[in-house]
Amino acid sequence: xxxxxxxxxxxxxxxxxxxxxxxxxxxxxxxxxxxxxxxxxxxxxxxxxxxxxxxxxxxxxxxxxxxxxxxxxxxxxxxxxxxxxxxxxxxxxxxxxxxxxxxxxxxxxxxxxxxxxxxxxxxxxxxxxxxxxxxxxxxxxxxxxxxxxxxxxxxxxxxxxxxxxxxxxxxxxxxxxxxxxxxxxxxxxxxxxxxxxxxxxxxxxxxxxxxxxxxxxxxxxxxxxxxxxxxxxxxxxxxxxxxxxxxxxxxxxxxxxxxxxxxxxxxxxxxxxxxxxxxxxxxxxxxxxxxxxxxxxxxxxxxxxxxxxxxxxxxxxxxxxxxxxxxxxxxxxxxxxxxxxxxxxxxxxxxxxxxxxxxxxxxxxxxxxxxxxxxxx
Length: 377
Ligand SMILES: NC(=O)c1ccc[n+]([C@@H]2O[C@H](COP(=O)([O-])OP(=O)(O)OC[C@H]3O[C@@H](n4cnc5c(N)ncnc54)[C@H](O)[C@@H]3O)[C@@H](O)[C@H]2O)c1
Fold this sequence. Notes:
Elements: E1 6-9, E2 15-19, H1 27-34, E3 37-42, H2 50-57, E4 63-66, H3 74-82, E5 87-90, H4 100-105, E6 110-111, H5 118-133, H6 136-144, E7 165-169, H7 173-186, E8 189-193, H8 199-214, E9 222-224, H9 228-234, E10 237-240, H10 254-259, E11 265-268, H11 277-286, E12 291-294, E13 313-315, H12 324-342
Helix pairs in contact: 1-12, 5-7, 7-8
Bound molecules: nicotinamide-adenine-dinucleotide.
Nicotinamide-adenine-dinucleotide binds near residues 174, 244, 247 and 321.
């Protein structure tokens, strides 16, 4: 294995912090340096193995900013704890790559980066919805392949969204933002499935519906359904926005695909294993009118056999949060998590994390997922 390359910033800093991939922007580094951290950044493109991360942590390390491509297990947290580490942050809002009970057992707080990915990720889901439903990638390949010989009445016919039904599975921050974009943009009716009701979303759409009626347009509706099957049966578009855990692994499987409309659109910008990808390949083969837009894959970066051969699937490489503003914001929040913990700051008491992104950095820790378990105020 080729040795990885590292860059070191503020080499005389008091706290040793490891960052397992180079991050966008500079604010994140300024935050760590201002907190008297010596910052060691892995500048190689390859994913670090658990063994390489352990080796880098060595005998003394105060904190780490890690990536969703790394399995932060009990072994790694025990290594970090015995090196004196007291802070970890994921560079992501999701943390299915982190063994939270193991981190808690090692008394290491785990940070994440909510609030700066919401609209960006929802916008990508919208883009995938339209790319799949209006066959953008397929038509692009057709043009580049020199196959366009003239306008035809039935060339690449796709889905009409206006007035249809959009189904959101997991109506949290991103799912609700996606739902609103599809309802406001295309006057779709919304159904959603979640473990909890999203009253703010329901109220927002009820108010929007009143606005439409006041302007002489048809109302739109929203409904929380009892079962996933209820949602799948009525939706023209289904978009997945749950966390990945044992309750959502293979949430979309062969049986549930069979419940969907034969010309429905399925979008996944949550995590790959939420869909049984082999079952999706089989379903798309036998249902050519069905389309899918995928940002994430079950065995990332690999794809299941046959997926890339399907014209009715649009595939992009896990880039749902890839805008400069969002990725720099994620880096800033991850750094503020680690720097804040090392300086003994209290938890930020609001969902609004924008104050961290410009001006003076608040003397607080933006987001810790095991704060309650570790009794962090
Ligand atoms: N593709 C990407 O680049 C990308 C970017 C950002 C987030 N994500 C993924 O999106 C997920 C959601 O992010 P968020 O900020 O909206 O989180 P969130 O916590 O606000 O929303 C998640 C929602 O899923 C619901 N949920 C959990 N288990 C469920 C189940 N079994 N059935 C139905 N609903 C369930 C929760 O109640 C919650 O409302 C993240 O966990 C992450 O995995 C992916």
